[in-house]
Design a protein that fits this description.
Layout (H helix, E strand, L loop, with lengths): L2 H18 L5 H8 L3 H25 L5 H21 L3 H28 L6 H30 L1 H22 L12 H6 L4 H22 L1 H8 L7 H23 L3 H22 L3 H16 L2 H11 L5 H27 L6 H24 L19
Helix pairs in contact: 1-5, 1-6, 1-7, 2-3, 3-5, 3-15, 4-5, 4-7, 5-6, 5-15, 6-7, 6-11, 6-14, 9-13, 9-14, 9-15, 9-16, 11-13, 11-14, 12-13, 12-14, 12-16, 14-15, 15-16
C-alpha cells in the first residue's frame, strides 16, 4: 500500500473531526459565547454550506495546478481555520474560522480522491479511495468521542487546538509521503472539467449520492432522540452506541471499496437496497434494544459502504477530467446531509414521532435505489465523456 494513502487518511481524519466533533460541544460553545444552542448550531450548518461552496469553487480554481501543492495549500487553510476558531473571542470570529476550515473540505476530498486513485493500479482505485476515507470514518469512531471528552475536560478550545495539530501532522505526511505527481494536462482546463457534466451518468451518480447518503444521515441526525425516547437507552449510553455506528462505517467503507473494485454498479445496488431494508426494519423495531444495536451497526455499514463506489463512479464517467466532478460529488454528500436532516425534522414537526426520521431516510434511500437501477441499466452502452487527452483508466461498472 502506498504510504501516501496514509498521509491522505490523516488529513481526512482531521477534516472529519472538524466537521463532527462540534456536535458534542455545542452546549459549551453556546455558553462561552452567550448564544442560544440553536444559534450555536449554525456553526454546523454554516460549515456544511461552506463545504459545498469550497468543493465547487476551490476545486474549479485548481484544475490546472499541480495536485500535491494544492493539497498542501488546502491543509494550510484547514489549519488556519481551526486556529482561528480556537482563538475566537466572539461568535462571529468562530463562525469565520469554521467557514475557512470548511472551504478546504470538499476540495481536499475531491482532489484527494483523484490523487489516491492515481497512486495505485486501475483495478484498485475504489479501494485506494476507501483507504483515504478510512480517516473520515475513524474520526467518527475514535476522534469524536475523544475530542468531546477533551473539550469537556479542558475547554472546547482545546479540541480545536488538537485538531490544528493533526493538520500539521497531515501537512508533514503529505509533503513527505505523497509523490510528486504529473501536472494536469494543458488540455484539462476548467472548460474541459465542466464538459464532464455533459455525461448523464455523472448526474445520475450525483443524485444517487444526495439521496442515498441523505437517507442515512436523515436517520442519524436525530438518532439520540430515537435511542432515548423510543429504544429506552439512557443518555449516558448514547456515545457508546454511536461508536458502534462508527464501527459499521469503518467496515462498510472497507468492504464497499473492495467490492466496488470488482463491479461498481452491482455493489452500489446491493448496498443501497440493503440500506433500505435496514432502515425500514429499524423503524418498525426501534422499541427493541437488541434490534436497535444491530440496526445501528448495519446502517453505518451499508450507508458508508456506498461512498467509495459513488466517488469512483463519478470519476469514471467524468473521463479524463475527473477533478471537478469528484469535488462536486463531495458537495453532493453534504447536500444529502442537509436534505436528510431537513426531511427528518419535517417528520418530527408533523408529530410523527422519533422514528419518523428513519422512515424518511428509508424513503429517500428507496428513491436512490430506483435511480441507481436505472443508471446501471443505461450505463451498459455509455462510456466516460471524451476529453482532449487520454482518458483515465476505467473501473469496472458492471
Amino acid at each position: 500500500m502506498p504510504l501516501g494513502l496514509i498521509a491522505l487518511a490523516i488529513g481526512a481524519f482531521g477534516i472529519g473531526l472538524t466537521e463532527f466533533v462540534i456536535m458534542g460541544l455545542l452546549p459549551e460553545v453556546a455558553s462561552d459565547f452567550g448564544v442560544t444552542e440553536s444559534a450555536a448550531g449554525w456553526l454546523i450548518s454554516g460549515y456544511a454550506l461552506a463545504v459545498v461552496v469550497g468543493a465547487l469553487l476551490l476545486t474549479a480554481a485548481a484544475t490546472r495546478l499541480p495536485r500535491k501543492p494544492v493539497l498542501l495549500g488546502l491543509i494550510v487553510l484547514f489549519i488556519i481555520g481551526n486556529v482561528l476558531t480556537a482563538l475566537a473571542e466572539d461568535y462571529g470570529v468562530a463562525m469565520l474560522g469554521r467557514i475557512i476550515a470548511a472551504l478546504c473540505h470538499g476540495a481536499f476530498f475531491g482532489i484527494g480522491s483523484v490523487v489516491a486513485a492515481g497512486l495505485v493500479s486501475p483495478e484498485k482505485k475504489a479501494g485506494a479511495i476507501a483507504i483515504m476515507f478510512t480517516g473520515l470514518t475513524a474520526a467518527n469512531v475514535f476522534g469524536v468521542p475523544f475530542g468531546t471528552f477533551l473539550g469537556q475536560e479542558l475547554g472546547w478550545r482545546s479540541t480545536f487546538w488538537a485538531i490544528s495539530g493533526i493538520g500539521v501532522l497531515a501537512f508533514i505526511g503529505i509533503a513527505a509521503l505523497v509523490p510528486r505527481l504529473p501536472r494536469p494536462s494543458e488540455h484539462v482546463s476548467l472548460r474541459t472539467e465542466l464538459a464532464a457534466f455533459r455525461s448523464g451518468q455523472v448526474w445520475f451518480s450525483l443524485v444517487v449520492t444526495i439521496l442515498a447518503f441523505g437517507g442515512m444521515f436523515g436517520a442519524f441526525t436525530y438518532i439520540a432522540y430515537t435511542l432515548t425516547e423510543v429504544s429506552g437507552f439512557a443518555s449516558s449510553a448514547v456515545p457508546w452506541l454511536l461508536v458502534l455506528f462508527g464501527a459499521g462505517l469503518v467496515l462498510g467503507n472497507w468492504l464497499g471499496g473492495r467490492l466496488a473494485d470488482r463491479a461498481v454498479d452491482r455493489t452500489l445496488i446491493v448496498f443501497i437496497a440493503a440500506l433500505v431494508v435496514v432502515l425500514a426494519l429499524f423503524a418498525v423495531s426501534a422499541q427493541s434494544g437488541i434490534a436497535t444495536i444491530i440496526a445501528l451497526f448495519l446502517m453505518g455499514g451499508f450507508g458508508f459502504g456506498t461512498v467509495p463506489g459513488l466517488q469512483s463512479r463519478v470519476m469514471h464517467y467524468a473521463g479524463g477530467a475527473p477533478t471537478l466532478a469528484s469535488g462536486a460529488n463531495i458537495g453532493a454528500f453534504n447536500v444529502g446531509n442537509a436534505l436528510g436532516a431537513w426531511a427528518g425534522g419535517v417528520g418530527i414537526s408533523a408529530g410523527l414521532g422519533y422514528t419518523s426520521p428513519i422512515w424518511m431516510g428509508a424513503i429517500l434511500t428507496a428513491v436512490a435505489l430506483v435511480i441507481m437501477v436505472v443508471a446501471a441499466a443505461r450505463a451498459k452502452d455509455v462510456g466516460p465523456v471524451a476529453v482532449d487527452e487520454a482518458p483515465t483508466a476505467s473501473v469496472p461498472v458492471g
